[in-house]
């Protein structure tokens, strides 16, 4: 009996040891793998393959079994011929259309990925290659969208044709980006324009005085601060605040005029926005259409490569970003701050 008991205890120790050892190995393996996966990287997708796969599946679904066999046999023969004449195939290789996506938030943090994508394209692109940017943004801080427009301008300076397609919205800072393009396509009901600057800030000074709370603000320089949320605002600081807004608006208009000389900038820079069909009449865009139609029309002539800069975040970063983003959206619904386009 004691022998069986000792044997059972020994076996339990062995199983426990191997379980702990195996768990430790798995833990360290997952940790190393996670570190590797957390590295930022460029993801390249061949879009015409996706389109061809969808087309193939749709065609096959409409065929009988006999028709499927015949069609698949023809396709196999066709691919063999291409493989046989590989050298000739590469001599007549298509031009490349690089496809980028930019869905911009208020602070235009997405510009970090855009910077990497454009740098990658410029390192390999030929003069006959083109870029399509699928843009969606309602604008945000001027320094963020100013940098995004400057990144797109790198393509323009290198002589690489840039087309921007707006399926939903390119307003304010979003339109600052769009105007850099050689050609702008807009969906019929996309929102375009809003070439203006807004500054709004609440002031709690009167409320604080009622509660006998004093706020002291000391600056070296008369206009280190103009309007404040807690202190007393004067006519002088209000005037300076408005002057700064007008200066930003003037620079904004000049930039758009430089990028799109065809525009009557004074008639479209009142801060208004227009739907795509109306924006076409005002020459804010060049064509009415969608990004899907544009891509399909280019499939025969170009290789379609989608370039994405993947920035992997830890679980804590994703959780924190989600909370901050939610609070930012709530705050921005209540208040608009200076330097927001």
Automatic annotation (TrEMBL):
| Alphabetically ordered keywords of this record | Cell membrane, Hydrolase, Membrane, Protease, Serine protease, Transmembrane, Transmembrane helix
Localisation: Cell membrane
Membrane spanning stretches: 6-32
The record's annotation in CDD domains points to: S49_Sppa_N_C
Report the record's Gene Ontology biological process terms.
proteolysis
SUPFAM superfamilies under this entry?
ClpP/crotonase
Peptidase S49 domain spans which residues? Answer: 155-302
User: Gene3D superfamilies under this entry?
Assistant: 2-enoyl-CoA Hydratase, Chain A, domain 1, 6.20.330.10
Under the heading InterPro entries, the entry gives: ClpP/crotonase-like_dom_sf (IPR029045), Peptidase_S49 (IPR002142), Peptidase_S49_N_proteobac (IPR013703), S49_SppA_C (IPR047272)
Protein origin, superkingdom: Bacteria
Give the UniProt family note. Answer: Belongs to the peptidase S49 family.
Q: Which NCBIfam families match?
A: PRK11778.1
The name on file for this protein is Peptidase
> What is the species of this protein?
Buchnera aphidicola subsp. Diuraphis noxia
Taxonomic placement:
Bacteria, Pseudomonadati, Pseudomonadota, Gammaproteobacteria, Enterobacterales
């Amino acid at each position: 009996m004691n022998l069986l008991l000792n044997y059972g205890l020994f076996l339990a120790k062995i199983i426990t040891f191997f379980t702990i050892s195996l768990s430790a190995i798995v833990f360290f393996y997952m940790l190393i793998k996670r570190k590797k996966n957390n590295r930022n990287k460029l993801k390249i997708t061949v879009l015409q393959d996706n389109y061809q796969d969808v087309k193939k599946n749709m065609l096959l679904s409409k065929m009988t079994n006999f028709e499927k066999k015949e069609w698949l046999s023809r396709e196999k023969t066709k691919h063999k011929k291409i493989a046989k004449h590989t050298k000739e195939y590469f001599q007549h290789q298509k031009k490349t259309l690089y496809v980028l996506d930019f869905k911009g938030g208020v602070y235009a943090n997405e510009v970090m990925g855009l910077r990497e994508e454009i740098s990658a394209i410029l390192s390999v692109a030929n003069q006959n290659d083109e870029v399509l940017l699928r843009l969606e943004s309602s604008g945000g801080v001027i320094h963020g969208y100013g940098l995004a427009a400057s990144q797109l301008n790198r393509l323009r300076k290198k002589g690489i044709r840039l087309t921007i397609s707006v399926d939903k919205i390119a307003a304010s800072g979003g339109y600052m980006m769009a105007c850099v393009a050689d050609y702008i396509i807009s969906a019929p009901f996309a929102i375009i324009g809003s070439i203006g600057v807004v500054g709004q800030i609440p002031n709690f000074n009167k409320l604080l005085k009622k509660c006998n709370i004093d706020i002291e603000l000391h600056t070296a320089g008369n206009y280190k601060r103009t309007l404040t949320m807690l202190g007393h605002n004067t006519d002088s600081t209000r005037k300076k605040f408005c002057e700064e807004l007008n200066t930003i608006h003037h620079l904004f208009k000049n930039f758009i005029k430089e990028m799109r000389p065809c525009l009557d900038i004074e008639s479209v820079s009142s801060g208004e926005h227009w739907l795509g069909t109306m924006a076409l009449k005002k020459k804010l865009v060049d064509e009415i259409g969608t990004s899907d139609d544009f891509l399909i029309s280019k499939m025969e002539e170009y290789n379609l490569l989608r370039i994405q800069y993947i920035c992997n975040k830890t679980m804590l970063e994703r959780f924190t970003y989600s909370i901050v983003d939610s609070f930012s959206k709530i705050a921005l619904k209540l208040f608009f701050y200076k330097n927001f386009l």
